[in-house]
Amino acid sequence: MLNLNDPSLLRQACYIDGQWVGADNQETVPVCDPANGATLASVPRAGAAETARAIVAAERAFPAWRARTAAERSRILRRWYELMLEHQDDLARIMTAEQGKPLAEARGEIAYAASYLEWFAEEAKRAYGDVIPSPSADRRIMVTKEPVGVCAAITPWNFPSAMITRKAGPALAAGCTLILKPAEQTPLSALALADLAERAGVPPGVFSVITGRASAIGGELTASPVVRKLTFTGSTEIGRLLMQQCAPTIKKLSLELGGNAPFIVFDDADLDAAVAGAMASKYRNAGQTCVCSNRFLVQDGVYDAFAAKLATAVATLKVGRGTDEGVTQGPLIDEPAITKVESLVADACARGARVVCGGKRHALGGTWFEPTVLADVTPTMAVAKEEIFGPVAPLFRFHTEAEALSMANDTEFGLAAYFYTRDVGRVWRVSGQLEYGMVGINTGLISTEVAPFGGVKSSGLGREGSRHGLDEYMELKYLAMGGL
Ligand code: ADP
Fold it and tell me: How large is the ipTM?
């Protein structure tokens, strides 16, 4: 089982109003290791009643939390950040056990997740307002920023820590209180974070974590008029549903939804750099990130060379258990995930795509899939439209810049896009016309706490991280002072 330096980080209870509690009916759900299906732990199967209590606690805790100075909230967030780094190894072990990603990637995610707490500890002190020159001499106009209030967060399994801290960091910095429902596959990472939050001095009710029945917890959070904001990362399908559920109470929304990232390689690109970027953007987390390249659009003149170089690089990936030394690709999260990847590859091959390497389940069995490159892929195939969420790189061919742009934008999604070129004019032309919230130019890695993360079109609403991230948890209040 899990061998931790600090075993108390392995929490198997909900954290509500500063208490570690089970479900009212004492039911639990197992948490499984995707590498072998073994049960690692079990967590409460909570629902609406427990959620309602967390909402009451968050509402009760809000006035005192918002009344603290920004510097006080900042110190608590910084302490939480420091505790995450002190326990980086244990947190990474918990993550790899329940999520499957290689341990080195899990350690990296813990540092990345912690960086959001550090960043927003700093930004907490910079929620500046405005003084606006008045149109009349007897008036003064000011704008202040105030916390939104009680917030709810629903997070996915692919980044079990970072998707939490980039919501909790700005929410708590702004003076909001937050109730979190983590993904059912990865509750242990969330509960370990709650344990560290408690140690850091986050007061009861300011940050609660509820595990259990997604639709019951989500239903209660979205229906409550007390909850003023929902922040969600996950599929477009569930995001759409939650948005509907939030409509009657007109909640503020931040939605980080699906993507269909194009990765464009122009004839003039530095091919080795493009391959390195492709590896980072495609095969990280076994392809299970919303900013993973989903479609490689490669110009005719370098198509064959890029395919060959990419296949050579892919051959260096080491597939195995995330805890094993040197492993760079773990298992997929579960059986439905691998079935989807398999069917997308089958559909592409049936319509004329060619397997350059990989293409099937890995000999290790379970939910391991071979790192795969497909050539001669066309826009009519399902991989062109659907998020693969697996280690498969489909290569499409294009001839002109206009054709590449048209293909890149031909999707309902608009999260991340990447392109490689050494032509500075093209850099500005293409980046200006890509209908995406984030564009990587000659890089395959774009995520950092200092930059605004988010998408357009069906990829969502709002931005996380950067100085803009704090605004998502604040309301503007306009003060007009007359009769001077
Ligand atoms: P993924 O495909 O990444 O699992 P989902 O959108 O299904 O994406 O899941 C993201 C998060 O949304 C998870 O925490 C999941 O439990 C939650 N979720 C799924 N269905 C619902 C629902 N009906 N109400 C509230 N939360 C939900």
Answer: 0.98
